[in-house]
Each structure stands twice: as C-alpha cells, then as structure tokens.
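TA notes. Do not distribute before section.
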Amino acid sequence: MGGSSLVVLVVLKYLGRRYPNKEWIRATGPLFVSSLSILVTYLGDLSDKGLPIVGTIPRGFPSCTAKPWFPLTHFGDLIGPALGIAVVGFMESIAVAKQLASRHKYDLDSSTELIGLGMANLAGAIFQSYPVTGSLSRSAVNDDAGAKSRVSGIVTATLVGLVLLFLTSVFFYMPLSVLAAIVISGVSALFDYGEAIYLWSVHKFDFFVWCAAFLGTMFLGVEIGLAIAVVLSLGIVLFESAYPHTAVLGRLLGTSTYRSVQQYPDVTERYDGIVIVRVDAPLFFANAQHVREKMWEYVDKEEERFHPQQQRGAGGATGLNVDASSTEREHEEKIDDFEDNQDPLVPVQGRRRCRSDITTQPSFSDATNSSDCERKIQFIILDLSPVARIDTTALHILSDMNDSFIARDVTMCLSNPTKIVMQRLIASGLDKDIGRGNIF
C-alpha cells in the first residue's frame, strides 16, 4: 500500500511538472491518494487483515490550560528541557525555511521567524499544543503541493479545525503507510545532494562537517546531530580565528600597489632589508601569539636568504658576480648587459633592490662596500589595513615585538591602521614606543 501510494505520488508530481497547464494534478496528488487508500481500506476491510491505520481521532479542540500557569512551581525542572526544545525547534525551522527560500528566490528574516515561532508557541500553549516549529515534513508536503504564499497555512489550519470538529471519523481507515508515503514524497524534494557535491568540490572540510551533522541526525537523533554540527562549526571558527592568514607583500612592478609575493610571484619586487607583512584578521588574544611567530618566521627566512648571497658579494642581489678588484667601467658594462637581457617580469627571487636604490643609484664602491646593501633586515612593516580591531593582549604582544626588534637593530613600522586600532595604540602609549614617524 505504501509503495503503491509513493509511486502514484511521484507519477502525479512528474505529470504536473511535465504539463504546466495541468499543475492541479500535482497539487491534488496527496488528496487523491488519501481518499483512494481510505476507500480501499474500508471496502477491503484491510484493517482487520493487519494493515496499520490511524484509528480513532479525538473530536473537538483541546481544553484551555492558561488558568493554572501561575505560579510556576516546576520552573526549575522545565527550563532545561524547554531551552533544548526551543533551540532544536528553531534550528529545524530555520533550516527548512532557508532551503525553501533558496529554492524560490525570496529573502528570509531569521529574527522575524523567531518572533513568529515564539508567538505561535505562546498561543498554542494555551490549548495544550505540542511545541510549534516549522515542520520539515509538513513544509515539504505543502511546498510539494504547490503552495505559494502564507495563505496556504491559513487554509490548512482552517481545514484541520473543521476536520477535528466534524470529520475525524472519515480518517479512521487512513493507512499509516500512506501517510508515510506522502511525507517521503514531499521530503525527498528537500534532500539537496547537489549541496554535498558543491561542498566536496569547494571546501572538503565543510563537506565533512555536513556529513557528520547528517549522520549524527540520522542515527543519533536531532539533538545530538545538531550538537555535532554546532561544535564542529565553532571549532572551525576558533581555528580560523587563532590561525589567520598572513602574507609577505611586494610592490607590483611599475605601480605603487603592494600584493602578496606568493600570489603574484612573477610581477612583484621587494627591497633588501625591508619585510612587509599583512595580517588578514583582527588581532586579539587568540591569534596574537601566532602573528608574532609568523613575523619572526618571515624575518628569519629573509635573513637566511641573505647569508649565502652576502658571501658572493653585492652582485648576488641581482644575479651578477662582480669582482671587487674589477674596474668601475667593467662593472657598469656588466650591469648594462644584464639589464638589456633582463625579462621585465622576473620572479621575486631574482627581482630585489637594495634600500639605497630607492632614493639614488649607488656608485661602484657603494655596490661593493656600502652597508646599505648588507644582507640584514632593517625594517619590518606590519600592514594593518585588514585589522578591524585589536585588544589589549595583542597590544602587549606588539609592544614585546617592538622591543625585540629594537634589540636586533630592526625598526618596526605600522601601516594604515584603522581609526579604532589607532585609538588603542594611542591609549596604550604604544604609538610613542614605536614612534609616530613609523606609523603611516
């Protein structure tokens, strides 16, 4: 009985979609299957042959129970289960609401939905109702029947009221398997397997969270499945907050724009002795230590890269091997030959400048002996443009970093801090420790 009803519902649904002018076939499918199954069960006396049916449905409305609400003698015993029911009910409601909103391309206000659920539960509690939520199964059946507006809910509630008052005996022979077929037919349309494929192709960790929530809900219950999803989601948020993305910046060739040298390795250049680091997250107690470790890592890597080049002389910065005993004219000829053959878009490893190149061209003696081209970090610049806020823990760590850099004869600079960040720097006095001239 259940399988036959499910087949009929699927066929009627297909015909309604295949022929738009006969959309009414799809909408009347559940009513047709219900009426036919009741008639067959009654005429064939199938209930006596073991077919489970709905049976007797109490007639009339439940009695009002608002009078004994106060005093709340069992408040302490009820508050825990009530909160659990409220959270699970809201999450179930908002999940199906978002699914339907996405399918039919309309906006959804979660706050309004929560207010609506609260008012519905308050009104229903007066008459001994179950906790009111946006039912997954009934919403799916309603949408599958072709409902377009909230009027469908009013019509459904009115018909349910009439059935409770006058037609409860009609549904006595309703097979439970047919009710299950109607629910399965409606809910199957909400199973969005395409979202699982999308998550797998875009972000596999999100896919594993989706699978954990799905399997937990299916085998362990809604509460545990929801708890698994919430815990995993919070874990992802905490992990991404504690380990934000950082990047070393270089100047795009021919511009004054700075971008990640890892993202644009072939069109960026960096200056010897200067490391520019960008932090792509707010700075607070959870990630400040990680940011400090990353900055020291970038500084150490830069200095390690310099040491072998320093042994080869100043020419290592551009890939030229210059003998200190050669004449100035020979050196200039080598530079000219190198520049003529140099590709304008070379990797960052081969596109470096000494700090002195920023303002003036060095002489031969400068190129070989001047300390301006020594392979030593002189400036560490922290780009704060993505940092929307900063807390006191991060300020303390920035202060410690500044002291450590000063001890190594390195100047720390801050670039483009937001208004809120700058106010915190001034309030803490860190702007004076770093130097106003080093904040720009």
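Switch to the second chain here.
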Amino acid sequence: ELLSINQLISMASSQDDTKVYEELYTFLQSDRSDLRISALDAVLSIRDAEDMGKLMRVDGIVSSLVKSCSHPDPVGVKAIQALSYLSSNSGSYENQCIEDLIDAGALPRLTELCLTPPSTTKDWKKRVNYSMGLLANMTRTERGSVDFVGRLLPDEAVKKSDVIEEKGPKVSMELLLSRFLSDRFISDEELLSEKDEEQQNNRDSQYDDPYQHFAAVLMNSTQTEVGKKFLLKLNYNNNKNDATAKKSSSSIFELILPQLRSKNPIRRRGIAGTIKNCCIDSNSAWWLLNEVNLMKHILYPLAGPEELTVDEKRGLDPDLWLDGPEKVRELDDFARLYLVDCILLLCASGRKSRETIRLARTYVILKLADMVEENEEVTDSINECVQYLRRDEEGTREGSSDDWMNKPDKKLITASGAVGKVDYDDVD
C-alpha cells in the first residue's frame, strides 16, 4: 500500500486519468496514520499545474484535508501544510480551494488551532505557523476576509463605547493579536540580524515565530470596514481615582506600529500593508499624522546609512539619523512599496496633510531612498510623492514649496502662505 501511494504522482503524470487522484483521496481518509502521511507527502510533491487541477477536481478532497487538520501530530501538521500549498500554488484553482475551505468550516477550525495552549515542541510551532499562513491565504479573497472578520469581530468588538471594558470575554481576534505582539512565543534563534534574512528564510527557524503570518491576516482584514474599525477605534481610559488626570486614548493601530522595526520581514511587510489600508480612509489622515505621529514610523524603515548635512537634519526626527552608518534601509521590496504608498495616500488626502508631511522633512528621506532604489514600482511611487510635495499650493507664490522644503522654518512657511494663519509661538 505504501509503495502504491509513492507511485501515484508518477502514474498521474503519465496518464490522463483522475482515478489516480480518487485513489489518493481514499488514502487520505484511511484510519492508518502512516498511510495518511504518505498520501499527504504525495499531495505536497505535486508540481505540475495540470496535475494540481486534477486533484482539485476530486470531490471532497479539500474537506477531507480540513478534517485531518485537528489530527494529532504529524498528520495534522502535514494536512495544514498541504492546504497551504494548494491554496497558494494551484494557479487558477487557488480561489476555488479557498471557497472550498470556507465551505468546509476551515476558518473556525484554524482559529481554534492557533489559540491552542503553547508548547515548546517544534510540532506545535509548525502547526500554528501553517495555520496562520493558511488563514492569510484564505483572507486574500473578499469572501474569506469578510467571513473571517465577521466571525471574529462581532458588533461588540467595534462598539462606540468610550470606556474600555475591563471584564468580559475577549473575541478571538484580540487573542490572536495579543499572541502576535507577545515576544514569549518567539525563539531567540529568530532574532537574527536583518542582513541574514535570506539565510533565515531557508532555515528551520522560520517556525520559531509561529504568529508571524498574523501580520498578513491583519493586512487582509483591513480591506473591510469592520477590520479598519477594529484597528482605528479609540479606547478612552478614564482614571476614576484621580480627578485631575486627563482622559487618554489609545488604539490597536498604535500597538502594531513598532512591528515595522521587527527583525522578521514577514511581520514588517504585513504591518506595512495594514498601515496602507488604513491610510486609504482620508477621514483618518489628520489623526494619523498629528495624534499618532505616523510619519516618524513610516520614514524610519525608508531611512538609510547615508550621512546627512546639518541642514538636512534640521526638522528631522532624531531617530531617523541617530543610527548613523549602522542604519539598514528596509530590505523587502513590498514593504518599501507599501510604506511609500502610505505617504502617497496621505499626500492625496488634503492640503493640511501635505503641510504636515513637508514639516516632517519627508522629502529628505525620499530623495536619499530614491538614489539607491532598484525597484521600478517603488521609484515611480516615490516620484509621485515628490510631485505632491514640491507642488505649489493654491494661493501661494510660485516656488514657495521649494523654499521651505529645503529649509523648514515655520516663520518662512507662514510668510509664504503655505499654512495660512497659524499662531505659532514666536520662539527659536
């Protein structure tokens, strides 16, 4: 029986017969763990798109794999791995695979697996890692994203209350977020230098950060309005014991911003994409720029090791140049693109936003980043940002934007009419 399973794929490649994959389906339902493992290995060995299509056309293949996900190790781990492979490498059948996964009830099953009690074993980390990766694949589609957010974020999760409830059940999304933000699930082996990222991707230590793919889940979830509300909702905390204490607010969006400096490129890419999705809402632009101080967080990954002049440092957040020649610019192309797109979206949100972005000396960072940028998409996006920033605003004299782009003096800005009547303190 084991020999016949190992021969299935080679047989399917030499004959146009779906019966081979139907036979594979029967092995996936076997009560014997060794037969299931061999069948799962056979699924993972499929590389040809046509063969993948034949497998996907077998009725019940996806639901059978979903049922195996909760099976004790290592069958369960391999089943999740097989589903992750099918939902990301089956070409035109990827969306159909995701539809079948949703119909088979994979979302609640995978969420439950991700929230299982932590274990130090490698199999637990692999199971959670593949489960989170599969959730990321499933939320790529509109139905998957809406269904995931709808299941995990009921109305109570985004209610308009001004007070944080200290007691009461937490929804699954908040539990997943708390584990994603916790360092105790990350092995020390995962904390490699950014220059070792290519080597890191080929190491078994990639499983030492089991919740890394939650960043991609967040990015996909914020394509929905409910997902954005979950991140951007302000929670007000009143200190009832101190009558003089000011009412402070916080949001989940602010909690995830430090992940832009994570050693893990998967986390950085997902969070950059999440921020981009939130920047699409122009109504949040003022809060993002003035309350959250988002430009500092966006510009830090785009800053590099270049030495800045005194004039270039003037007005820049010190964090953007204090690292000196040791600073490493973001290595992931997608993360850089998402971050520059954030700036572009904020620039397009209105004149006041552009004024704040100019004051942050964004042009200095973009200019240096563009000099060494090799990705054409990133370069094009940077050029669009520069066009916005160097464009004279309506009602200002010609060339006024260039004057204070090069020398950010608030008095000069006011005199040029770029920000209108603003009562700045008359101090140096």
